[in-house]
Amino acid sequence: MTCRHYKSNTKEGVDKMxxxxxxxxxxxxxxxxGAYVNSExxxxxxxxxxxxxxxFARAYYGDVEDAEKAVKAARIAFDKGPWGKMSxxxxxKILLKAVRIMEERGDEFATLEALECGYxxxxxxxYCVPMAIDSFEYFAGKAREIEGKVIPSDYGTLNYVTWNPxxxxxxxxxxxxxYLMGCQKINAILAAGNTCxxxxxxxxxxxxxxxxxxxxxAGLPEGVFNVITGSGNSVGAYLTKHPDVDMVAMTGGxxxxxxxxxxxxxxxxxxxxxxxxxxPNIFFEDIDIKTAVKWAVWGFTNHSGQICVSxxxxxxxxxxxxxxxxxxxxxxxxxxxxxxxxxPSSNLxxxxxxxxxxxxxxxxxxxxxxxxxxxxxxxxxxxxxxxxGNFIPVTVFADVTPNMTIYQEEIFGPxxxxxxxxxxxxxxxxxxxxxxxLAGAVFTKDIKRGIRVADGIKSGxxxxxxxxxxxxIESPGTGWKESGIGVAGIKKYMISKxxxxxxxDNTVPPL
Length: 511
Known about the structure:
- This protein is α/β, with parallel strands linked by helices.
- Helix content is 38%, strand content 20%.
- The chain has helices at 11-16, 64-79, 88-104, 106-117, 121-142, 178-191, 206-218, 232-241, 254-264, 289-301, 321-335, 354-369, 384-388, 405-408, 424-431, 447-456; strands at residues 30-32, 35-37, 44-49, 54-60, 149-151, 157-165, 168-172, 195-199, 225-227, 247-251, 270-274, 280-283, 313-317, 373-376, 395-398, 415-421, 436-437, 439-443, 461-464, 480-481, 484-485, 494-502.
- The strands form six sheets. Strands 14-15-16-13-12-18-19 form a seven-stranded mixed sheet, sandwiched between helices.
- Helix 3 packs antiparallel against helix 5 (121-142), helix 3 (88-104) packs across helix 7 and helix 5 (121-142) packs parallel to helix 6 (178-191).
C-alpha cells in the first residue's frame, strides 16, 4: 500500500484526500512471532467509523489459542532470543530506525486512527503522529541512560543496584487513544529490554496491528513484539492469568482494573494500572472569565471528553458563578462545531461507538432526573451526519451536588458538571470528594493560592492556569486513590536488583 502525502490540515488538502487509500481491502491480521497470521478461529471483527457507523475494514479476531502462541513467542524471545543479549545501544538504534519509518507513514496512521477511533484527522496527523514519533526518539535515548547506583555499606563490601527488564509484559490498551498511548508504552517496554504481547482495545485495533510492520522493518527480532486482538473477557483475562507473563499493564476503566488485580493475584504478578478519573477544574473569582471559559470548555470537550484526565467537574466561585455559566453557553454555541472527522471546520468528535454513546446519554438522563440544571445540550441531534454518527452535543449541568451520579461517576463524554463554592477550603474539599485522584486544575491570578490548592488536591497530575499535560512522556502523572497503581515511565517496566560483593578475602561468617 502506497502512502500518499497531503497538506491535510487545509480544506484543499482534505478535499484531495481519499481516506480509503490507506485502508487494506483484505482483513488485517494478528502479529505473532515476527509474522502476520490469521486467527486460529478465522473469526473476523468489523471496524466501524464512529462518525458514520459504517464498516470500513475488517480484522481477525483473536482468542486464547492465539494469545497462547503470542505468550510462548514472547517468552522464548526474552529467555533465548537475541533481544536479551543486545546492548542498550543496539536496542536504541532499532527504535531510531523506526522513527524514520513512522515519519514516512504518518498519513496512514493518522487516517486509521481517525476512521476507527473518531479522532479529528488534523489532530491525529499533527498532534498524535508527532507525539508518537517523539516517543520512539525519547525512549531510544532513555534506553542508553538507565543507571543503577552504589550504596554505602560495611567496609570491604560493595553494594550496587541495577535496573533490569521485568520480562514478558502484557499491555492492555484503551480505545480512546490506542495509537499514541500504544507507542508511548510499547517504546518504553522495548527500551527497557522486555518482550511484549499487546492487546488492543476491541474498538481500536488497526493502528496497533500496523505498528508491528514498523518494528519489523526497523529490525526488531521475532517474538519481541506481538499483537493479539480479542475480547477483554477472553484474551485480556487469559494474559493476566498466564504463568509466563511477568507483568500486566492496563489502561482503562477502574472496574476493568479491579478484574486485572483479581486475575493476577494468584501468581502475585507485577501490575501497573492507569484507570479512570473525575477531575476537578477550579476557577477563582480573580480570573479573566472569557479566557477561563475557553480553558474550562477545552478541558472537557477535547476528543469529546474521551480523555481520562478531562476536567469534567468545573468548580466556580459563587461571586462569578452565573456570569461564568452564561459565558460558557455563549462560547459553546459560537465555537463548538460537531462534524465529520475529516472536515477541517469541525472541532467536536463523535464518541467511539453506539454502545458508548448510549452510556453517555444514560448519564445525561440521570443528571436531569436527579435535578441538575441544564445550561446547554442534553438533546440528540436529529439531522444529517450528526444523527447518523455517534455525536453528542456539548452538555453542561449546573447546580450539581456531590450526591448526584454525574458528579461521582466517570461519563467519558462531552458532559460537564458545574458546582459553586465559597472558599478555598471548600473548593479543595469538593475537589477531593470522589473515589478518583487522576488530575485537576486551578485557575487564579494569585500564584500562592494556586500552589496551595494544587498541594491540597489529592491527584497525581495538577495544572495551574492551563489544562492538559505539556510533558506527557517527560513528566507522566500517576493515579491516586482508585485512579491507578504503579509509577509511569520506563522504570514502570523494570525491576531492581541489589548485589553485595565481598572484596576482602579473609571475611568469614560470624559462627
